[in-house]
């Protein structure tokens, strides 16, 4: 039971953004998609979510293609949290989270008990229950991001794909969000996140997929993917590594000599 | 849950209230006219099958006027809400963005060429064709998610072009009265309409309402952006087709029989939005009823005002709506800062 | 800024134009032989009273049988669109126009030395007769003028005998829902046809819009529709075909009277009176 993408190729505005990328997201794991800016991470996530159709390659969710499943069934299986969360209208937080139940609701039916329970649970887990009646426009950036995450959780999908869910959050809420995602994965959901922060990615993800210039460069456990060579060549950084209470961590510490010499050339 | 928190009124409360209000306006519209009419007597005569003069006036003159006012208002209100939901912009409205004037041009072409004399249905179909072309042009121009500036500019362009084309068509029309009739087409009126106009426009407008109403859940999802809406299972192409088709049918049909009445689709959704918790899906039908109430009220004003010849309906809605638009633009600019 | 030089230039131009025109125009004879008419109503009088050979041009509107009473005759002579260049090109010795002809055209004609004789719209039958005489004198066709008037009077006398015994209540409904008020020529036409115009009791003084509701509830006995049958479509004429009017035909007499018969308040007015009397005869 997994989302399996093979030889994905995507062209956007005449440019080849993704080229022959393979990716798999199994249930119960946290997959981190990392890479430098412009590598194609968001594009890949959108392909995995079924929101963007690839020009080349095949996507199967639990063995079935998007066409075989149908839009509604796919929506119930895969939840997607977009990068810039904007709500066009000043909905209340509770109503916004409620939108996550749309794949489960028949077009003009009222909310069911199951819907209400899912909404309440999602809001509790994201610590936004207190905002239920408040208009989203009156919340801070971070609070709004948590409400949007709650919306994605409310779908109760088998897979949750989040594009940079930590942007704009303070450190406490960043850690809380990642712990929440791990808990969701532990309960059986397959979670994929696009992350920029390599420390957090290495710490909280079971597996990392490294994308560079549209190609899948490495796929495996964080220690294997983020080795010295790759950090230097692809990210241009040198990292400190350590161990705390049995958990390894890495910390990008400085830019590499090659990068430094660019600056020194005056 | 408090009755009017930020989530607005429950549909079970709001919709019946709006329905009752609409029916009340219809009743008042039947009771008010140019001559005193004993409404009770007229209804009694009608029920008994007596073709007295009061019954005649009621059925042939007042009833079509009231019905048409309600139906046209419903179309314009709902189309405004639908367009705002689709474009995620509170300024979108058939009049502002030029769809109503394009529909007027289509209707004018069908009417003065004699086409609608040969086939009555040509009149609303002409209006629908005009509305359809304008809506398609608009969506092509704006692509995804229109900024306010782009939207208004596109509207100015479409309105200017359609207005000029209408004036040209009227100038070229063989009938000497035609050139003076531009005021009807561009400002709208319910005077001297008959039940034939009602039957002509009603099926097409109703089809439009159904198409637009079917997009309610998709519009809600669209609040979160196009990609999130797609991930929630709503196909954007299908949504656009239903919305464009629905708006063209209802606005085109309405304009063909009553001229281009503007600003209804701007004012009504804005006023009702807080009552539906800002949810674009719920706003659709509520705005329909709101539009019916507004147009009927404006038409009452037109008939009660001691001005002859009779004021055009679009004049009244513009007098209300244009300052409203100004205020709305100001508010949006302030919020953007 | 206009200097003396600019003013001189304008005067020179005007003088040249006048000279040119005077050369182009034949010396004024006793009987006009090249008549140009710039107005549909003057067209009709000219066509009735003058020899076709003496007419240089009439307006193009008179050639449409739906709008004009002498269309067939009009088609045998050239047409103009009321433009000054066309008037000059026709080298007329007499130009006639209506008081509603474009002011610019009329004043320009005056400036180049060939002023148009203007005719107003008669407000009653007496003024209509006076106008026929005036035109006849201008055309040097007094005999024909008197014959026309005599014919009209004879027909009016004959019609008087055929009027209904009691005057019938009537409303006139014009395009765009206008009614005709008291004291107008139409009023007199109605009276001569044995009808009484009830517009006044409905509050219409000289010219005003009447709501269809008012028409329906007014308890008229005759409804006269001032329509152009088979005309091109317009909203103005749609009003005259509103279903309520058809429904009213049960309880009153519906008479359609083409607008062209009385638009000009000319000799065709008698045709209008005759049509009314004939249609209403069985009503007695």
Q: Please state the CA-atom Rg of chain C, rounded to the nearest Å.
A: 22 Å
The CATH architecture category of the largest domain in chain C equals 3-Layer(aba) Sandwich
> Which regions of chain C contain 5 or more consecutive residues with pLDDT less than 50?
25-29
- Provide the CATH superfamily of the largest domain in chain C: Nitrogenase molybdenum iron protein domain
The helix/strand series of chain C, from N terminus to C terminus, equals: HEHEHEHEHEHHEEHEEHEHHEHH
What percentage of the residues of chain A does DSSP assign to strands (E)?
A: 25-35%
Structural class of chain A: alpha/beta
Largest sheet, strands/sense/barrel of chain A: 6 strands, mixed
Provide the CATH superfamily of chain A: P-loop containing nucleotide triphosphate hydrolases
* Major sheet size, sense and barrel closure of chain C: 6 strands, mixed
Query: How many strands appear in the DSSP assignment of chain A?
Result: 11
- The proportion of residues forming helix of chain C, as a percent range, comes to 40-55%
Overall body shape of chain A? globular
Rounded to the nearest angstrom, the distance between the terminal CA atoms of chain A is 55 Å
CA distance, first residue to last residue of chain C: 74 Å
CATH topology of chain A: Rossmann fold
Mean pLDDT reading of chain C: 82
Give a short synopsis of this structure.
The complex is a heterotrimer of chains A (266), B (337) and C (284). Chain A is of the alpha/beta class and 266 residues long. Chain A has helices at residues 41-48, 66-69, 71-77, 93-98, 113-125, 141-154, 171-186, 198-204, 222-225, 228-235, 257-264, and strands at residues 2-12, 15-26, 30-34, 56-61, 78-81, 159-163, 190-194, 207-212, 215-220, 237-244, 247-255.
